[in-house]
Specification:
- About 40% of the residues lie in helices and about 20% in strands.
- By secondary structure, it is α/β, with parallel strands linked by helices.
- It has one domain: 3-Layer(aba) Sandwich (Glutaredoxin).
- α4 links the parallel β4 and β5.
- The radius of gyration is 17 Å and the shape is globular.
């Protein structure tokens, strides 16, 4: 058998294993959300415990200023008053640095913190760091007690903000 012919298949299986192990490392629904301590686009430090008592939409995204990430951020921006009305905060996280976040937030008038995970620790802790070194597009909905109640693997950012908002309203009615 030609070893060179097997190389693409071996690489593909390796990528699947990396993706699978990262998924397996993600915190489970019903468990306490892993703490994080990250700076936002203005250099202010944020921890999840700062938001205890509020619903938290913790969304990870791959890269500032890219089409899908911009669409997703702008949807959250456009819905920010509805989130505030239900007592929720939106926190965006990527592995970009503070300066990149600052330019992104200013360009699109983003009214919520974009947290810089430059050392990739939060992305690893949440199991969203992919093999390219960027965060996968995933969102964690965290209840006011700090427990993960829903996880979204987002393939299409269009409509995602509304879906999360509706889930918060549904979960609030159920409690």
């Amino acid at each position: 058998m030609n070893l060179l012919a097997l190389l693409p298949r071996v690489l593909f299986m390796g990528l699947l294993a990396v993706g699978h192990s990262a998924f397996a490392d993600a915190p489970a629904i019903g468990k306490r959300a892993p703490e994080l301590r990250l700076q936002d686009q203005n250099g202010k430090w944020h921890t999840l415990s700062d938001y205890r008592g509020k619903w938290v939409v913790l969304y990870f995204y791959p890269k500032d200023q890219t089409p899908g990430c911009t669409a997703q951020a702008c949807e959250f921006r456009d819905d920010i008053f509805a989130y505030r009305q239900v007592g929720a905060v939106v926190l965006g996280v990527s592995v970009d640095d503070v300066e990149s976040h600052k330019a992104f937030a200013e360009k699109y008038s983003l009214p919520f913190p974009l947290l810089a995970d430059s050392n990739k620790e939060a992305a690893k802790r949440y199991g969203v760091l992919n093999f390219t070194g960027f965060a996968k597009r995933e969102t964690f909905l965290i209840n006011p007690q700090g427990t993960i109640v829903k996880r979204y693997q987002v393939s299409n950012p269009e409509g995602h903000s509304r879906e999360v908002l509706e889930d918060i309203k549904r979960l609030q009615k159920a409690t």
